Amino acid sequence: MLSRAGGALFITILFAASLLVAVVLGAVSGGRAGASTDPSSCVAPLPGAGLAAGKVPAEYVEAIREAAKASGIPAPILAGQLRQESNFNPKAVSHAGARGIAQFMPGTWASYGQGKDPSDPQAGISAQGKFMGGLLKQAKASGFAGDPVDLALAGYNAGWGGVTAVGGIPDNGETAQYVTRIRQFANEFAAKDGTDAVTASVKGSGECDLATGTSSGNDDYPFKDLPHCMLNANGGYAGCPAGSQSEFNAFHGECVDFVMWRLNQQFGVTKAPWKIMNGNFRPDGGVLGDARDYRAAWENKGWPVDKTPTVGAVVWYGPANANASSAGYGHVAIVKEVLKDGSFIEEGYNFGFPPEDHKYYTIKRANSAPDNFLHLPKAG
Q1: Can you tell me the distance from the alpha carbon of 64 to that of 198, in angstroms, rounded to the nearest whole number?
Q2: Which residues pair with 372 in a beta bridge?
Q3: Cystine design at 46: which of 199, 211, 217, 333 (Cβ 3.0–4.6 Å)?
């Protein structure tokens, strides 16, 4: 483990080669008595924070939940970090001198440990939450590209100076793997629906459920014949002609525009004034941005993120995923159909080079192909 320090902003680029997003179309049903009838008002206090029963040592679950509340980091991420740092061992001591369940160096512990023994697991988890919360705030306030949670994790491992030096996750042979491993552990520790008994709530009363919808299966995107940005033969942008900016404050034919069309359909809106636009989705005022930004936007919204496809869920490919159509920007689509052979059919827009760019497509994918599935909460 390297040093500790923190922060980086989540830069958003309005358009980029192949940003595909599509979401659920059709009615959303179910929910519990007393739940909100508007999924957009369903906000979980711990974003994507559900811990699966029996996956994390029971004596640490409540402390992790409290650290998640304090930091804004999903509880499965914090649990995954503890697994990576010490395998939940409060007596762990590294060769570099880091101590405790969250592996704090002595100098950093002096600032976050509140005078307690670093081998105290409850104190260690509390300090982890405070430190990660500070890193996350710095991540959101800087100018670096990438998921703020991943940047915060990188800062925890490599020191914020290391992140700042390269404007992102350091390529030092350790930090990128550190982040990846924590994400893998987090997927293992996360509840299937992204929520648990203490994390799911609606403003006022009721609970957040997952939405299960249906897809039209057709190219019903209403702006497909309007001007769109032009790509060169290598997939880079060659310019955006007049009239290419969309009503959603994105660009016609882009992945992000298609997803906002689907999102608005999900909420029963098929013409202006639109309910969901690029600038009004995130509670913190940030834009939805590129495909690479969508997982963080979902977590900021407090909506479930997991590894299980359901019809209508957003399919999220991170910027390093080989299935992303454009390296660096990621890719997003929608689950059109879930098959019994461990695969699904995705539909989307703008997943090809000229002359096949800015067009509708469907493709069969293995459930393991994307990095995550982003779910909508179920309406009541």
Answers
A1: 12
A2: 316
A3: 199
Chain segment 201-245, per-residue pLDDT in tens: 222 222 334 444 444 457 888 999 999 888 766 566 678 888 988
Best-predicted range by mean pLDDT (110-124, 189-203, 339-353, 361-375):
110-124
d(CA 276, CA 23): 12
Model pTM above 0.70: no
Task: Report the half-sphere exposure of 200 (CA within 13 A, side-chain side).
Answer: 23
Pairing verdict, β 331-338 and 314-317: antiparallel
Strand pairing partners for 334? 314, 347
- Sort strands 377-378 and 209-210 into parallel, antiparallel or unpaired: antiparallel
295: nearest Cα among 313, 269, 311: 313
Rounded percentage of the chain residues whose pLDDT exceeds 90: 34
Q: For all residues of the chain together, what is the average pLDDT?
A: 77
Q: pLDDT of 327-355, one tens digit each?
A: 567 888 888 889 989 899 988 898 777 77
For residues 85 and 214, give the distance between their C-alpha atoms in angstroms, rounded to a whole number: 41
- CA separation for the pair 168, 8 (Å, rounded): 8
Domains and their CATH numbers in the chain: 45-189 (1.10.530.10), 209-378 (3.90.1720.10)
Task: Check if the beta carbon of residue 84 is closer than 8 Å to that of residue 174.
Answer: no
How far is Cα 118 from Cα 112, in angstroms, rounded to an integer?
A: 10
Distance (Å, whole) CA 189 – CA 191? 7
Residue 223's closest CA among 246, 200, 239? 246
Cα separation, 175 vs 155, whole angstroms: 9
CA separation for the pair 40, 68 (Å, rounded): 22
Q: How far apart are CA 154 and CA 356, in angstroms?
A: 37
Beta bridge partners of 363: 346
Q: What is the mean pLDDT of residues 120-125?
A: 97
